[in-house]
Amino acid sequence: MAPLLVPFRQFVLKVHSRCDLACRYCYVYEHADQSWSRRPKVISEETVAWVATRLGEHAKAHALSSMHVILHGGEPLLAGPARLRKICATLRDALTPMTDLDVRIHTNGVQLSERYLDVFAEFGVKVGVSLDGDRIANDRHRRYADGRSSHQRVLNAVNLLRSDRYRHLYAGLLCTIDLANDPIAVYDALTDLTPSRIDFLLPHATWDEPPVRPDGHPTAYAKWLLRIFDRWDATGRPMRVRLFDSVISTCHGGPSLTESMGVGPSDLVVIETDGTLEQADSLKIAYDGAPETGYDVFSHSLDTVAGHPGVMARQQGVAGLSAECRACPVVRSCGGGLYAHRYRGENGFDNPSVYCADLKELVTGVASRLAAEPVIVDGAPESVAGVDRLASGSGDREALLELAAAQRLVTREWLAMIEERTGGGDERSEATWQLLARLAEHPDAMDLLLAHPYLRSWAADLLVTASDPGDLPPISPLTAMAASAALRAGITDPVPVPAERDGTVFLPALGRVRMAPAGMRWAEAVPDGDGIVVRLAGDTARIVPGAAPDARWQPLGWFTDRVALDDLDPYRDHYTRPARPRLPPREAGRLRETADEAWRLLRDTVPQRLPGLTALLTTVTPLAGTPDDTADVRLAGGIRGMGAVGLTPTGDPVALARELLHGHQLATLDALVEQIQLYDEADPRSFPAPWAASPLLAGELLAQAYARSATPALAADPVEHAEETVRALDMLADAEVLTRVGEEFVAGIRAALPAEG
Fold first, then answer.
1. Going edge to edge, which strands form the sheet with 197-201?
2. CA–CA separation, 477 vs 443, rounded Å?
3. What's the sign of the alpha-carbon dihedral 590, 592, 596, 597?
4. Digit-coded pLDDT (tens) for 244-264
């Protein structure tokens, strides 16, 4: 059976095919593929309309919660602000009804001005700028065609981005490594521009055209990068560095964070100015025509491109790497390097990266440093990236996504502890851990498992209640969640799924299947086209996720078009109030109608919070109880993933909107306090809350105040609501119960609240 397609989520849209610089290392103009010269300079409105149509089809077909579009070139700013505004508007109008659209632009910066940034501010377009360091470093390659320096123009652009008016659009800096440049001078020059992120890029090279190594040293690039890592680490990691963050993540068992390393499947497609659909741009360094698929937006769907052999070759994980890579101890972190860097004319891409020795030394060098005690210099504050943005309630997607990724790493560590405590285990336990080992080879599947909203609840309960392997309850919930993740990620092998004695087979995040009772505790499930075949003893059922329910199949319902209404999951009952049983169809329909009204209300009253809410919210679980419309806070509580919210079904859209925001805030705070201490958890004091009948511990008061900080606009008396929340925050600040970063966090919450009456 052919493997299921991995849908595209990232789209590089070429809006202009020419450039105003003549960078000597440019893969578009200076390498083997010269197709740029045969394409129109500027993308047409008709082509953009077709692009929007194809992306919309793809989002709907695969129920994609988000899509990322990168406006690219050549130099995309050459398209002009008016055309860029039209492109953004076309994409927004076509896609926002069905998916969360994230648009970015990558530019050399020399044309950047307020006219462009005003357009980007209108559509929330984040701007990444290429800069190779100080003037000496930058001008080695990044010059105009007549040899003039571009450095000052780029600095002007970055400083404009750093201004208060546009700072929220500043996505970071991209720097191509040149061994001739001093790494510390480069790093310091970039750091002085206060980016939120730096991407260090290895210069494109293949085995046929290997990278420059002035001293001939086989790991010169790793040594260059490790000097920067030591500087970055010793100064408190003041910004994210994608390459280092990726190695740190994979060394702790987490996912890769960059296409250039790790074994995650590629989910990117390039759309050229003439509408042709191609593979990653970096393939242009291999040979003329290397990225071509033969498809275009006018005649072909994106699913057609996803089935292209070249695309699928980059989605096979470790199995798609060379024999040398598969045998390498650092393959999970390195992932064979960038696909294009493996090319050799005699055998194509079946090779390690031409930077193999560098990547191995980089991974082992970072790993060895992580084992050492952390270095703190100059009183670097105890903090985590994005804590100020999380406090202010700006809806910052990146900060929340980073926090969710950190939470997944914690969950993975919990699973490792559970595996260690199960010892040898019985046959069922062994099958579960074998399944997880298979998922580890498929980062997309492992991410689906780790993001399951109730995996954390189950794991936390198990670790708290069990003191030795003999105390461990059955781990069949983990088996079911892992099996569902494998099926949703398109792993084609059959997976074991627990079955109840009455024949019920539950597939978390999908639904439940009623099989004929067989007295057996294990079923088998396997992908089958757009469906899943489930077998239990002699009974077979084929179900299609999302299809209408019938006598055998009960799918999860929908709270909104992109958020599941989970009233089936047997592991969902981890809130302070009991979970409701399956809602009758009429009640579920009424709740969805109220949800639609609540969502419109949120868009009208707190639009700044929607990017954060939509970035993570995947699951709503109905809880028992009678809604009290006068109660300002109905906190769900419980340990769960950041994508889950429990709430009381109600016909009041205002109450429902409040509960959505409260639940999202609480889940965010739960994840944050796992990463950093905000208050003294041992402090026994209770504090009176202006809105509560009984005093609250410091953590409870902080949680409720943080939840309330999201909803003054939805309160009956917004001024009183904000003033009460401020009084609670001031009480915490005055009680000397907060850590230093806790004080900063509380100050950030307070500053974002409306001014007192």
1. 240-241, 197-201, 170-176, 126-130, 100-107, 66-72, 10-14, 268-271, 276-278, 292-296
2. 20
3. positive
4. 988 886 776 555 677 787 666
Residue 198's SS3 state is strand
Confidence at 636, pLDDT banded by 50, 70, 90: very low
The residue assigned the tokens 């109220």 is 594
pLDDT at 105: 96
Nearest CA to 7 out of 266, 279, 319, 292 is that of 266
pLDDT at 380: 31
Q: What is the pLDDT of residue 66?
A: 75
What tokens does 240 get?
């994210």
The winner for highest mean pLDDT among 137-146, 185-194, 471-480 is: 185-194
- Give the tens place of pLDDT for each residue, 505-515: 999 999 999 99
- What are 517's two structure tokens? 């009772």
Q: Do residues 735 and 685 make contact, with C-beta atoms less than 8 angstroms apart?
A: yes
Q: How many CA atoms lie within 13 A of 337 on its CB side?
A: 30
| pLDDT at position 201 over 90 | yes
**Under a CB-based contact definition with an 8 Å cutoff, are residues 566 and 556 in contact?**
yes
Contact 129, 173 (CB under 8 A): yes
| Strand pairing class (511-514; 292-296) | unpaired
The distance in angstroms from the start CA to the end CA of the chain is: 66
C-alpha to C-alpha distance for 225 and 221, rounded to whole angstroms: 6
Q: How far is CA 686 from CA 2, 193, 690, 696, 741, in A?
A: 60, 44, 13, 5, 21
- Higher-confidence residue of 242 and 313: namely 242
Instruction: Give the strands of the sheet with 504-507, arranged side by side.
Output: 504-507, 511-514, 553-555
Please, which residues bridge with residue 347 across strands? none
CA distance 34 to 41: 14
Pairing of strands 276-278, 268-271: antiparallel
What confidence score (pLDDT) does residue 561 get? 85
Helix H, strand E, coil C: the string for 153-184 is HHHHHHHHHHCCCCHHHEEEEEEECCCCCCHH
- pLDDT score for 468: 42
d(CA 200, CA 244): 9
| Ramachandran angles phi, psi of 244, nearest 5° | -70, -45
β-strand pairing of 539-543 with 504-507: unpaired
Can you read off the two tokens belonging to residue 370?
A: 């992580």
Read off the pLDDT of each residue in 500-527 and give the average, rounded to a whole number.
87
Q: What are the tokens at 138?
A: 């930058």
Per the CB < 8 A criterion, the answer to whether 505 and 512 are in contact is yes
Q: What percent of the chain has pLDDT over 70?
A: 86
Q: How many CB atoms lie within 10 A of CB 253?
A: 16
Beta strands at 268-271 and 10-14: parallel, antiparallel or unpaired: parallel
Cβ 516 vs Cβ 536: under 8 Å: yes
